[in-house]
């Protein structure tokens, strides 16, 4: 049975009081809890996505010795709200020769694909919406909807720039799925399960228990995963689908107002999700840095803060890379994926398997310190 | 209850999108409706407790096959592509007349009735277990079966896939200049 937020809360006394309130109807209570939890997660993530645009501008300004947004509210923090209002009130332009159905559908597909991944993000040991047995696999599978949204958006706009951007986006996302999946597979192999609960649960304690430092292969695997994740979310130096110097704005050239906003929001939330997955798979996820065996509700909130801190640090690195490295060419992009990352990821997978057999699954630190 | 409603919604999505696939005249829209159908089927698997199969369905069909179909349609002419081919009755492939419709209807009826007859004892035996909230982990069971009982089929299909991969690479390889 899958561990969910409902099964976690049912351990506590107040769950029984709530159950009495709903007349003993467990199904209805579970529905209400899921509804509230899903609303909270989506609202929080939409806010994080919105502030992602603010962070992007502020950090890029820092890196380029500028001020960045500083007019709306303290430190320009309300810039997000101003942008949102601007996007909603803008005219919604539909190109004359566009495919209307697909044009409307594409941004929704991108956004739905990202929101669906939030179901398995391991916020803490108890507060993940659901801890599916196939968690990592589900996340990789459902996020391919984003690529489809980008591709259809490019096709439906009936513009050469959008078309090129959409095709680049789809081919890039399909290609980079392979090294990313292979490096995730190495971690699944070591944890012995595909659920985030199992994977995060194996990395309890001090940082040298993290899978990043487990053995040399996972250390390389983290960087393979991170590079591939950058490409999958169309971030620089892999932002070819929206390369502004050649394609105007790529697949969302023809989109205006909130439809463009959906694409932008999907991109920023997806960065948050892939950074969260990197934190959960390699950096110990929501585990406390010390080993304690008490399970009380306030501890869950501490775990959430730890998880979000790790994720936002990676988020910072993603933005930092964007404003540091120049964009690649298409052929360089493909040769990096197929000639370098994929062989390295396969090597890592085989290396991890050999390590597990040779050292009985013990980590490098354990071998040095332990007996 | 919750799972039953989700099962119903998945079934509704599957059926309505299937109708969309055959009703629309735009082949790109057909592909997108097919996407909805495949997602609906994944939902059916998930609500019946086959979580791994459901996710594999999404991974293979949504992430691979539908994108491949969209690419193929687009690169071979997109929605403006009209086939000049005719079928046995001298009709365009997308057209039909009352004979083809009634024949297809008869075949579908026979097919459905045969399936219902075959599955009748499963349908009548379907207790609350089928719809239960508990979903046993199918991942480890599948893994054990794949490397124990069905290891020959597993290895053979991997060789087949490798052959397909090599074949595709050979076909796509640029020809050497003489």
What can you tell me about this protein's structure?
- The complex is a heterodimer of chains A (371) and B (178).
- In chain A, strands 1-2 form a two-stranded antiparallel sheet.
- Chain A has helices spanning 5-9, 13-21, 26-63, 79-89, 100-117, 135-142, 144-156, 160-191, 196-201, 216-232, 244-247, 257-282, 297-322, 330-358, 364-369; strands spanning 3-4, 130-131.
- The two termini of chain A are 37 Å apart.
- In chain A, α8 packs parallel to α14, α10 runs antiparallel to α14 (330-358) and α12 (257-282) packs across α13.
- By secondary structure, chain A is mostly helical.
- Chain A has one domain (91-369).
- Chain B has a domain at 137-178.
- Helices cover 72% and strands 0% of the residues of chain B.
- Chain B is mainly alpha-helical and 178 residues long.
- The chains are: A mainly alpha (371), B mainly alpha (178).
- Chain A binds chain B through residues 1-2, 27-28, 30-31, 99, 101-102, 105, 132-134, 137-138, 140-142, 144-145, 147-148, 151-152, 155, 170, 174, 177, 193-194, and chain B through 1-2, 26, 28-29, 32, 35, 51-52, 55-56, 58-59, 62-64, 66-67, 70-71, 74, 79, 133-139.
State the largest interface: A-B, 30 and 29 residues
Q: Quick check: average pLDDT of chain A?
A: 84
- Our count of helices of chain B gives 6
Q: Major sheet of chain B: size, sense and barrel closure?
A: none
H/E element sequence of chain A? EHHHHHEHHHHHHHHHH
Ranges of chain B with pLDDT <50 over ≥5 residues?
A: 127-135
Regarding quaternary structure, what we see is heterodimer
The count of domains of chain A is: 1
Global Rg of chain A: 22 Å
Tell the overall outline of chain A.
globular
Largest sheet of chain A: 2 strands, antiparallel
- Share of β-strand residues of chain B: under 5%
By secondary-structure content and strand pairing, the structural class of chain B works out as: mainly alpha
Structural class of chain A: mainly alpha
The number of helices of chain A is: 15
User: Strand percentage of chain A, roughly?
Assistant: under 5%
> Which regions of chain A are unreliable across 5 or more consecutive residues at pLDDT < 50?
none
Shape field of chain B: extended
C-alpha termini separation of chain A: 37 Å
